[in-house]
Design brief:
Blueprint: E1 7-9, E2 12-15, E3 20-24, E4 27-30, H1 33-44, H2 52-60, H3 64-81, E5 92-95, E6 99-102, E7 106-108, H4 126-146, E8 156-159, E9 166-172, E10 178-185, E11 188-195, E12 204-205, E13 212-213, E14 217-218, E15 224-230, E16 235-241, E17 247-252, E18 262-264, E19 270-275, E20 284-289, E21 298-299, E22 309-315, E23 321-329, E24 332-339, E25 345-347, E26 354-360, E27 366-373, E28 376-383, E29 389-391, E30 397-402, E31 408-413, E32 416-423, E33 433-436, E34 442-448, E35 453-458, E36 465-469, E37 477-478, E38 486-491, E39 497-503, E40 509-515, E41 520-528, E42 535-536, E43 542-549, E44 552-559, E45 565-567, E46 573-578, E47 583-588, E48 593-597, E49 605-608, E50 619-622, E51 625-631, E52 636-642, E53 647-654, E54 666-668, E55 673-680, E56 684-690
Antiparallel strand pairs: 1-2, 1-7, 2-3, 3-4, 5-6, 8-56, 9-10, 10-11, 11-12, 13-15, 14-15, 15-16, 16-17, 18-19, 19-20, 20-21, 22-23, 23-24, 24-25, 26-27, 27-28, 28-29, 30-31, 31-56, 32-33, 32-55, 34-35, 35-36, 36-37, 38-39, 39-40, 40-41, 42-43, 43-44, 44-45, 46-47, 47-48, 48-49, 50-51, 51-52, ...
Helix pairs in contact: 1-3, 2-3
């Protein structure tokens, strides 16, 4: 049974795509996405008993700490949904020590079946109910055809992988019989090869080192794959022979550019990848001639005075054009089609925030791409003749790639974040508990004990705006309405001011300060080039911020009144907190922890090396103690380092990699609680899409 389409449970109509239930002809009840997921999973496996562990693994990504409590609450919510007067039914039975069983046989919504589903409890309303239900069924079908997924009629989706962890960045072989992808799990993050004709055969692990790998691309003869391999200090373009697993280094690439992009021309002669060499202001796309062993990478992207940064690239099948993703700012990235001979460029998408992969159809007329906005992933088909975009209506869609037969492979990623807490008041180990968890992503918490307000980012509005709540996550309200992504909220030491930031272009960022007393938000009269995350000086006036001055990035003090700056580090300081009026504790580019007197920035003292510390932003400081996230292949731990005593203590171990190291911790001293951002079942699988437009 297709649980993505409407179905009946007795007299109720469940609409999975809308997260809603039709209770009667006039009443439509919205339900939580988790309610939909659990209910649909039980429907899919009707009539067998489904264990709690299986439901937690499927819906909450095997996150027992959150899933145990959440599942109990979700089952209760499901039962309440089917208690409408005169139509109450018992839909779920708890089977002691085994799990849950759906009691009502689900039936797909269609005209022929509708008459048999009249309510036995209210026969007087049977005829109007059936008539209206008949009309509702037709309306739903028409709306599904004309408004929503045009894929619904003939498009089919096949799940290629469903392993625990995340399968990412799929690349099908030229003959369409194999796929290579990255599988991130407790054993690490490596490239794997899977034979599509043998779905039950486990994939073959190709890489074995602890490097980070990009998406791979194939040679035309399928003997080699190419990818970017990055360690803490080095990045190389690799040619990998599939039979011998021999690696050959073809070129270098930058270490600190985030996601690495790579593409192969249709004739197999040119490899494109993002790189940066001495003299480059920004990284960009480089071309490497694979037919010449002596060839050096040649820059394709704009070099000087560019209004954008080029990141991803895809070659057209006829070899005449490339599609290039150009990022103008952190909230603006769009696709341009560039003629390889004339270099003439035409913009073909508008108003996208973040492009997540592009792939050309063999006809040369269609381009499929992924787009992300505030951690919500979507897919589109772009007709290059008319520039019409057709949404695929597949949640979590990203990094697509066509195979030779015209079918499309992509990653389907569920990415949701929530604010979690941990109680430090007891020596007895306790569990992480959710503070703010919903169907939306909530992250970057910071608490003011003066105003007793928790500030955080939420994508509930469609953007990451700043929200406020109490310490328990209740009494929520949206503080900003920027209609673009806000970043880095942090309360001042006196708890009266909240600083946050936002990008306005590729090279310009702005800083805002909210005053909890006056309830006003002021924008500082300054724009800065890619500044780092601001933290407060104890004087509640100055900010510690990373700036690029004369081509070198260091930490500075920024006076929010005069806008004057003072350099406070001299060894690539990246992010830090003031531990006192004069002492700055900070991390450098190597993820090592230092302290320094801000009046003597050239005399830093190392506190922890990379092996002991190893995070850039996943930490905070309170009362001369550093709380930070540390992780390995098996999971995450929270540690505490006493600066004065030089004492390192383990606080908590979580056997899943789920605590974000890209975001800091927040201490609530009065309540002795530690807040941080945690991912909720960041599951990703590889799927295959057959679509009528691809034929």
């Amino acid at each position: 049974m297709n649980v993505e389409q409407p179905f009946f449970l007795g007299p109720y109509t469940v609409l999975p795509q809308e997260d809603a239930i039709l209770i009667n002809t006039k009443n439509k009840q919205s339900i939580q996405p988790k309610v939909t997921e659990v209910l649909c999973y039980l429907v899919l496996h009707y009539p067998r008993v489904v264990s709690r562990a299986e439901l937690i693994e499927h819906v909450w990504g095997n996150n027992e700490l959150v899933g145990e409590k959440a599942l109990t609450n979700t089952i209760w919510q499901i039962r309440q949904c089917f208690k409408y007067p005169n139509n109450e039914i018992c839909v779920i039975e708890t089977i002691r020590k085994r799990g849950y069983k759906l009691l009502v046989k689900p039936q797909a919504v269609n005209v022929e079946q509708a008459p048999s589903l009249s309510s036995k409890n209210d026969k007087s309303n049977a005829i109007p109910w059936l008539t209206t239900l008949f009309l509702i069924t037709i309306i739903i079908g028409l709306l599904s055809f004309y408004l929503a997924p045009k894929k619904a009629a003939n498009a089919t989706v096949t799940q290629i992988t469903k392993d625990p962890g995340s399968e990412l960045f799929v690349s099908p072989s030229p003959d369409g019989k194999k796929v290579i992808y990255i599988w991130a799990n407790n054993a690490g993050r490596h490239l794997y090869l899977k034979e599509l004709a043998a779905p039950q055969v486990p994939p073959i692990q190709l890489t074995i080192t602890n490097a980070s790998y990009s998406r791979a691309v194939w040679s035309l003869d399928q003997q080699y794959i190419y990818f970017l391999s990055t360690t803490a200090s080095k990045c190389f373009v690799i040619k990998f022979e599939l039979i011998s697993k021999k690696e050959t280094k073809l070129a270098t690439c930058p270490v600190t550019t985030g996601v690495k992009y790579i593409a192969m021309s249709s004739d197999g002669r040119t490899l494109a990848f993002n790189s940066k060499v001495t003299g480059d202001i920004e990284d960009g796309i480089y071309f490497l001639n694979l037919n010449n062993n002596q060839a050096k990478p040649e820059r394709f992207s704009c070099q000087d005075n560019c209004a954008y940064r080029e990141r991803d690239i895809a070659f057209s099948p006829n070899g005449e054009y490339v599609a290039v993703a150009r990022r103008a700012s952190n909230t603006s990235e769009n696709i341009f089609i560039v003629n390889l001979k004339t270099k003439a460029a035409q913009q073909v998408t508008f108003k996208h925030n973040d492009i997540e992969g592009m792939t050309w159809h063999k006809s040369n007329d269609l381009l499929v791409f992924g787009s992300q906005k505030a951690d919500k992933h979507s897919g589109f088909i772009l007709n290059l003749k008319t520039l019409k975009q057709t949404p695929l209506n597949i949640s979590g869609f990203g990094f697509p790639s066509f195979s030779a037969d015209g079918s499309l492979f992509y990653q389907k990623r569920r990415e949701t974040y929530y604010i979690a807490g941990y109680d430090l008041s007891t020596s007895v180990g306790t569990s992480i508990y959710p503070v703010i968890e919903s169907e939306f992503s909530n992250k970057y918490p910071t608490y003011s004990e003066v105003s007793q307000e928790l500030a955080y980012l939420s994508n509930e509005s469609g953007y990451y705006e700043v929200w406020l709540s109490d310490i328990y996550g209740s009494n929520r309200r949206q503080l900003t309405n920027l209609k673009k992504n806000a970043k880095y909220p942090l309360w001042s030491n006196n708890g009266k001011k909240l600083v946050f930031a936002s990008a306005i272009s590729k090279s310009e960022n702005e800083i805002y300060v909210y005053n909890s007393v006056t309830k006003k938000i002021n924008r500082l009269n300054i724009t800065l080039d890619k500044f780092g995350r601001p933290t407060w000086h104890p004087n509640n006036k100055d900010l510690v911020i990373r700036l690029n001055v004369a081509g070198k990035r260091e930490l500075y003090l920024l006076d929010t009144n005069t806008l004057m700056t003072k350099k406070v580090t001299d060894n690539n300081g990246r992010f830090g907190y003031m531990d006192s009026d004069k002492i700055l504790v900070y991390v450098d580019n190597k993820k090592e922890l230092y302290k320094v007197d801000i009046n003597e920035p050239h005399m830093p003292i190392k506190l922890l090396d990379r092996k002991q510390f190893g995070t850039r932003y996943g930490w905070s400081i309170h009362n001369h103690e550093v709380y930070f996230k540390s992780g390995d292949k098996a999971g995450d731990s929270i540690k505490r380092f006493n600066i004065g005593k030089k004492l390192l203590t383990d606080i908590l171990y979580v056997p899943t990699i789920s605590i974000l190291d890209s975001e800091p911790f927040s201490m609530i001293p009065l309540h002795k609680k530690l807040l941080f951002t945690k991912s909720l079942s960041e599951q990703s699988n590889i799927n295959q899409l057959h679509h009528p437009l691809f034929n």
